[in-house]
C-alpha cells in the first residue's frame, strides 16, 4: 500500500522534527523525557497505521535495547548533552548543539526500523532486536549524516572562463 508507506514516512518525519525540537528544551532531563515520549508516540501511531497491537512496555524495552546496543557513544553524548545544560550559559549552548541532531536522528532511525518491520508483517511480539540492530545502526548513521543537508545552500554555478580578446 503506497498510501500507508507515505503516511508512515510523514509520521516519521513529523516525530523526528518534534524530537529535534524537544532537544532544545533547556531543562536537563526534560529534553530526554520529551524525546522518549515522542519516540513512543511514533511507534504507537505506526502500530495503529499497520493495524498492529501496541504494547507500551514491550515497545520501551525494544527501543532501549536497540538504542543501548547500537549507540552507546551517541547515547552518552545525548545524556551528556542534556546534563551539560545545567551549567549556566555555556552549558545550555553546548547542550543545544548536541541534543537536537541526536534526537532527530535516533527518532528517524527508530521510525524507519519499525515501519520496515511492520510492512513485512512483523509485530511487537516477534520484533527481534538482534536482527534489527544493524539496520537501526545504519539508519541512525544515515540520519546523522543527512541532518541539515536540506538547509544547505546550493553550490553556485561555475562560470566557464572565456578567452579575453584584445582589440587590435
TrEMBL record:
Its main location: membrane. It is a multi-pass membrane protein. This is DUF697 domain-containing protein. Residues 142-168 are annotated as: Disordered. Pfam families: DUF697. Residues 153-168 have a biased composition (Low complexity). Keywords: Membrane, Transmembrane, Transmembrane helix. The keyword Transmembrane applies. One of its GO terms (cellular component) is membrane. Residues 142-152 have a biased composition (Basic and acidic residues). It is found in: Membrane. The chain crosses the membrane at residues 61-80, 86-106. InterPro entries: DUF697.
